[in-house]
Amino acid sequence: MKKTAKIIARAGIVGALYVVLTLAVAPIAFSAFQFRISEALTILPLLFPETVIGLTIGCLIANIFGNGVLDLVLGPTATLLAGLLTAFIGKHIHNVPLKLTLGALPPILFNAIIVPFTFMSMTEGFTVYLVNMASVGFGQLVVIAVLGPLVYFASEKIAQRLDGGFSKKVKKY
């Protein structure tokens, strides 16, 4: 498969997975106490920068079923900004534990800061914003800290098999 096709396919698959995983847990994916399993995928730009666009489009599509127009704008914006910074970290940090730690921060922080504004349209008050910021941030932290490393190492292993070791072994025979 040509490199461009592989990049587009990877971005599309990640976007589709984001939508499916979000909608699979819809009752807990769109509330103030969010636990989006799909957010574990936000670690992928560390390995594959092209997944930023897939995650952003996947978030946009998933948020059609979310909390209104603000969710359609703010959710994908948070995902895009977090993805770009995560990809930057992936490109410049080579120590894997440090890369995973720093790479997990953008999706946690951008979502914790930006997403609560979608709930502000339904309620008023800075205290409500702070509570929603803490709850969204906590949900992000739990999902990304627990599932993010699993996604990272599994994706790295699969990519090595597809791009390297496995295909080289097949060519020898």
Detailed description of the structure:
The protein has eight helices and no strands. It is mainly α and 173 residues long. It has one domain: Orthogonal Bundle (Arp2/3 complex 21 kDa subunit ARPC3), CATH 1.10.1760. The longest helix has 38 residues, at 126-163.
Question: What are the salient characteristics of this protein?
Answer:
173 residues; mainly alpha; Arp2/3 complex 21 kDa subunit ARPC3; 0% strand; disordered C terminus
Mean pLDDT: 90
**Percent of sequence in beta strands:** under 5%
Level of helix content? Answer: over 70%
CATH architecture: Orthogonal Bundle
- How many structural domains? 1
Distance between the termini: 19 Å
Low-confidence stretches: 166-173
From the alpha carbons, calculate the radius of gyration and give it in angstroms: 17 Å
The CATH topology corresponds to Arp2/3 complex 21 kDa subunit ARPC3
- Classified by CATH, the class is Mainly Alpha
Compute the number of strand runs. 0
Count of individual helical segments: 8
For the biggest sheet, the summary is: none
Find the structural class using helix and strand composition.
mainly alpha
Order of helices and strands: HHHHHHHH
